[in-house]
Amino acid sequence: MTLTSFGPANRIKRSAETHPLTWRLRDDGEAVWLDEYQAKNGYAAARKAFADMAQDDIVQTVKDAGLKGRGGAGFPTGVKWGLMPKDESINIRYLLCNADEMEPNTWKDRMLMEQLPHLLIEGMLISARALKTYRGYIFLRGEYTTAAKHLNRAVEEAKAAGLLGKNILGSGFDFELFVHTGAGRYICGEETALINSLEGRRANPRSKPPFPAAVGVWGKPTCVNNVETLCNVPAIIADGVDWYKSLAREGSEDMGTKLMGFSGKVKNPGLWELPFGVTGRELFEDYAGGMRDGFKLKCWQPGGAGTGFLLPEHLDAQMYAGGIAKVGTRMGTGLAMAVDDSVNMVSLLRNMEEFFSRESCGFCTPCRDGLPWSVKLLRAIENGEGQAGDIETLLGLVGFLGPGKTFCAHAPGAVEPLGSAIKYFRPEFEAGIAPTSAVVPPLARPIVVGA
C-alpha cells in the first residue's frame, strides 16, 4: 500500500496545514506510538477540548465545519451528534467506532488504524467528551489482526498516560475504550447490525425508528461513527472551522479532505489524502498514473463495489458526493477501481453479486431471494446459456431491490453496479443469451435459491 502527497509525483510535502489526517505518517510505514504522536502535536486538540470548550460547543464546531460521515453514507456528523439526548439524567451512553471496513476495494481505515492508532483514539476521546459517553467500542473487522494489535497497544499507552480511564486530564470526565473484533460480516457495516453483533445477537439490521441515538447498545443512547470520520475531529478542534472548510476545492459541497484511492491495473495503485473536489481524472492520471502499458480503461467505480460503474468520459466529475451524483452514482468510500478492457462485465458482475448474495443477512425477502436469483441468471449468461428475457429480469430485480424496497441499504448497493453495467455494456450481456432460447416473460423463470 502506498500513500503519496497532495501534489502529483510527490511535489508537495504533507503538512499539518494541508493533510490533517496523514501528515504524521512515518516514511517507513511503521506505527506512530504515543511519544512520537505527542511530539507531533498529538492530543493537543483533546487538551483544548477539555480545558477550553463546553461540550455543546464541540458539537457545534463539528457541525459548523461541515464534517460528513466517511463510511459511504455521508450523513452530517454534527447533526448526528445533535440527535443524542440532552437529558443529563441519562448517564449511560455509548460511542461506537465502525471499523468493520468490509466494502470490497476499500482499505483506508485499515491504514489509519495500523499507522496512526492514537489519531483515532484522540478523535474518539474528543467525541466522547462532546456526547457525554462514558464508554466506547471500536468494532473492528476480524481479519484486521495488525490493526487490532496496534489499537490495543495504543489504548494501553493512553491509559498509562491518563488519557483514558478515570478523571481524564483532571476534568472529572471518565471514558473507557475497548477494541472489539467482529466475526467478519459485511452487514455489520450497517450501524444497527453492528449494534446487534456487539450485543452478541445475530447481525441483522434493526428497524428505525427508534434510532441508535435514542435506543442503541443495550437500549441506551448510542452514536456510531466511521474511523475516518472520527480521525477528522482533532484537526477541526485544533485549527478551526474556517481552516477546515478552506481545504476543499472550489465547487465542492463537502468540506475538508478525504482519503481516496485507485486500484486495478493502474501504474500506481494507492491511497492518498486529497481535498474534496479533485476530479476523477486527477486521481486516475496524476496519482494512479493511468493504466499500465497494454491496458485500456473500460470503466471505473468511484467508491467501492456498491457504487455504479462510470465510463472514461466521466473522469472529469469532481470527487465529492454531489459531483459524483451528477454522473449517476454515489461517492461511496472514495476508493475507486479501474476496470480494464480485458474484463468481461458479465463475469465481473457475477463475482460481485455472489459476494453480496453471500453477505445478505437474510432478513427480508427481496434481498434474501433476489440476490441469489441475480447470481443464477448471471451465471447462465456467463456460460452462454441465458434465455431471452433474462436481461429484463435482471433489470426488474434492480428495480425491486432498489432504495426503499428493502429493510436496509445492502440490496440497493448490491444492484447499483448491476444496473449500471447493463446500461453501459448491454451487448456483453446479450452475447450470453442462447440463440435458440424461447422468450420467457420477465420474472417468470423459476429459480432455485442457492442452486
From TrEMBL:
<dbReference type="InterPro" id="IPR037207">
    <property type="entry name" value="Nuop51_4Fe4S-bd_sf"/>
</dbReference>
<dbReference type="InterPro" id="IPR001949">
    <property type="entry name" value="NADH-UbQ_OxRdtase_51kDa_CS"/>
</dbReference>
<dbReference type="InterPro" id="IPR037225">
    <property type="entry name" value="Nuo51_FMN-bd_sf"/>
</dbReference>
<keyword id="KW-0874">Quinone</keyword>
<dbReference type="Pfam" id="PF10589">
    <property type="entry name" value="NADH_4Fe-4S"/>
</dbReference>
<keyword id="KW-0285">Flavoprotein</keyword>
<protein>
    <recommendedName>
        <fullName>NADH-quinone oxidoreductase subunit F</fullName>
        <ecNumber>7.1.1.-</ecNumber>
    </recommendedName>
</protein>
<dbReference type="InterPro" id="IPR019575">
    <property type="entry name" value="Nuop51_4Fe4S-bd"/>
</dbReference>
<dbReference type="GO" id="GO:0016491">
    <property type="term" value="F:oxidoreductase activity"/>
</dbReference>
<dbReference type="GO" id="GO:0010181">
    <property type="term" value="F:FMN binding"/>
</dbReference>
<dbReference type="InterPro" id="IPR011538">
    <property type="entry name" value="Nuo51_FMN-bd"/>
</dbReference>
<comment type="function">
    <text>NDH-1 shuttles electrons from NADH, via FMN and iron-sulfur (Fe-S) centers, to quinones in the respiratory chain.</text>
</comment>
<comment type="subunit">
    <text>Composed of 13 different subunits. Subunits NuoCD, E, F, and G constitute the peripheral sector of the complex.</text>
</comment>
<dbReference type="Pfam" id="PF01512">
    <property type="entry name" value="Complex1_51K"/>
</dbReference>
<dbReference type="GO" id="GO:0008137">
    <property type="term" value="F:NADH dehydrogenase (ubiquinone) activity"/>
</dbReference>
<comment type="similarity">
    <text>Belongs to the complex I 51 kDa subunit family.</text>
</comment>
<dbReference type="GO" id="GO:0046872">
    <property type="term" value="F:metal ion binding"/>
</dbReference>
<keyword id="KW-0520">NAD</keyword>
<keyword id="KW-1278">Translocase</keyword>
<keyword id="KW-0560">Oxidoreductase</keyword>
<keyword id="KW-0411">Iron-sulfur</keyword>
<keyword id="KW-0408">Iron</keyword>
<keyword id="KW-0479">Metal-binding</keyword>
<dbReference type="GO" id="GO:0048038">
    <property type="term" value="F:quinone binding"/>
</dbReference>
<keyword id="KW-0004">4Fe-4S</keyword>
<dbReference type="GO" id="GO:0051539">
    <property type="term" value="F:4 iron, 4 sulfur cluster binding"/>
</dbReference>
<feature type="domain" description="NADH-ubiquinone oxidoreductase 51kDa subunit iron-sulphur binding">
    <location>
        <begin position="346"/>
        <end position="391"/>
    </location>
</feature>
<dbReference type="GO" id="GO:0051287">
    <property type="term" value="F:NAD binding"/>
</dbReference>
<dbReference type="InterPro" id="IPR011537">
    <property type="entry name" value="NADH-UbQ_OxRdtase_suF"/>
</dbReference>
<keyword id="KW-0288">FMN</keyword>
